[in-house]
Amino acid sequence: MSHEVEEPTYEVIGPLERFDERDNLFARERLIAGSPEERAYHALHPELVEVDRRLAAFIEGKADAQSQDEDWMGAAFYSATFGPVAALAQPDMVDGPTGPQKVEGEPADMARRVKKLARYLGADLVRIGPLNPAWVYSHRGCPPFFEGYQANSPLFDGIPDGYRDLKWGAPIEIPHRYAISMAFAQDDRLMRTTPSPVSDLEVGQVYARSALASVQLARYVRALGYPARAHHLRNYGVLVVPVAVDAGLGELARSGYLISKELGLNFRLACVTTDLPMALDRPVDLGVQDFCQECLKCAETCPPKAISRGEKVVVRGVQKWKLDEVKCLLYWGHVGSACAICQVVCPWSKPRTPFHRFVAEIATRVPAARRFLVWADDLVYGAKFEPRPIPGWVK
Prior knowledge:
Blueprint: E1 11-12, H1 25-28, H2 36-44, H3 49-67, H4 72-81, H5 91-94, H6 107-120, E2 125-130, E3 178-185, H7 188-191, H8 197-223, E4 228-231, H9 240-247, E5 251-252, E6 258-259, E7 267-274, H10 288-295, H11 297-301, E8 313-315, E9 318-320, H12 325-335, H13 341-345, H14 354-365, H15 370-381
């Protein structure tokens, strides 16, 4: 039974506003105190000076702890998994020139080929949707920047058009019409140690796989003669969550992420935007809006209470549950690792066994059963989160 619908289940209340990447917490934490960028940003947002000072202190404290061997295992895991992804963020990795000749094909056949390759490259789920221009970042806020980039820098194909002199605050325009969204599952056993260096290791490894797959898929599409840009952890140009919702990978959830029928919340996203003509998938209605209204498990188990227990609010034109990103990130700093409790406690985030696939099907088809399923999840898995011990091989 298909759960596809004509429109996504999030509600658009007013004009959609593009998100400025300079407002991203990970962009703000990188602002160097006293730099021209920091002064310019806080001149526009004086109310964020104190919050950003706390974020910067968290980053500096984490770096100091790692340099003093207080978290040698976490530092080594981070270097091994997150570090190489930066190389895949270079402009000729995410983007580049197209092939000399366009390969023509039926949109349905092109979509089939792209999906097969994406799965071969490591994606667990892949869907194709339209690219809503509202989901493209308005201005650049996160590195890499290429202002004054040296000609002898280690780039394989040179800096593509549109990336030269790209700097903090530069406007972003991505005119592509389509987006190939990919989901990459995280190992349930490792993620249930969260927050820990081991869950960080798994997150970093999945991000690394997703980055490589997106770069490879984009290069494949460009070789067919069509523009294509990869979007991954170290170089986003779009908001990958609403892009994935529009493609039908899942529904926007209370946690601020999206719930997939197959993977729950326990996965990471990457995507490729392009003009390659392909048959498009449609959004899905899995009953997540009703389920999240009743469940509250992610909000109740969130240690810093960053996930809303209340009603939806309007954010840049969309009515949604709003995550308190500052509380979330500062908690990461407090415990010394990224937290993924919300991802693993979600009743949808269960092993892909026949039984759990059956339960997910019931949850999507029978609204009256959803409250019972929340109760049953508490009964079987517990209402409170208890982290699993770290595996012996990493001790």
